[in-house]
Amino acid sequence: MLTIETAARITAIIVGVGILQGSLQLLLSLKEFGSSGLFDWNSRQVTARSHGGSRGWMVGRTGLVSLRIVVVARIVCSIALIIPFQSNLLYALYATVILLSSLFLSYQIRYGKDGSNQISFIILAGLAFTFLIPPSSPFQAVGLYFIAAQAVFSYFAAGISKISNAQWRQGSALQSILNTATYGHPTAAAVLLRRPWLGGFVGWSVIVVEIIFPVALVAPPGLLVPLLFAGVMLHLATAVLIGLDTFFWAFTATFPAIIFVNGVLLAR
């Protein structure tokens, strides 16, 4: 069983690595927000109006420096979040700064959002709460409970969504996804095209793991470890084949909280 402190620190390290990777990638792409870039100010204003009116304080033509400052602050705080042997107050500060910067960037950048963004918000909020609450308080673990509950619900909702889709039930969804330009992997798509049964097997395996994942909160170690391992493999395959590497860090960062809650519930 993990302690509150250990679970929170491991979570902070994993999510910190993910935030660092994503922030470095964003820093390298900021030139696209310049006057001649793909996401220049004019195009973002059009997008803003299409989402319900003008964004009054959206970073404008000269705001590229502001974006760069925010991204650099995320990089610094994510590195600090990974470094051990600091006070809980400092860890809470790092998590809060990253959370606020995430909200700011979400407001400014309207493209490329996915489920990993939402789960990262949840993790950072839960971590900030956990690190802010004194160890003597009976409420310190609330943040970890929040992270674990949101994680298992996300898996369950994803499984229900897939089993409600005819392509997933028929086993053709994976081949279709891997055959796209955005999330494609030509080699893997060709393998599934030649072996349709493999797509069905993998697809149903994903559905089953996601639907039963909430059991991880009360599962004995003999079932908990395979469930978490299946989750790691799922996100690793998603990162390698589809390119959604942010999912790997965001969702595996919830696993220490799940292990902590599992230990508490089984101990009762």
From TrEMBL:
InterPro entries: HTTM-like. Residues 3-263 form the HTTM-like domain. It comes from the Bacteria. It is a multi-pass membrane protein. One of its GO terms (cellular component) is endomembrane system. Signal peptide: none annotated. It is found in: Endomembrane system. This is HTTM-like domain-containing protein.
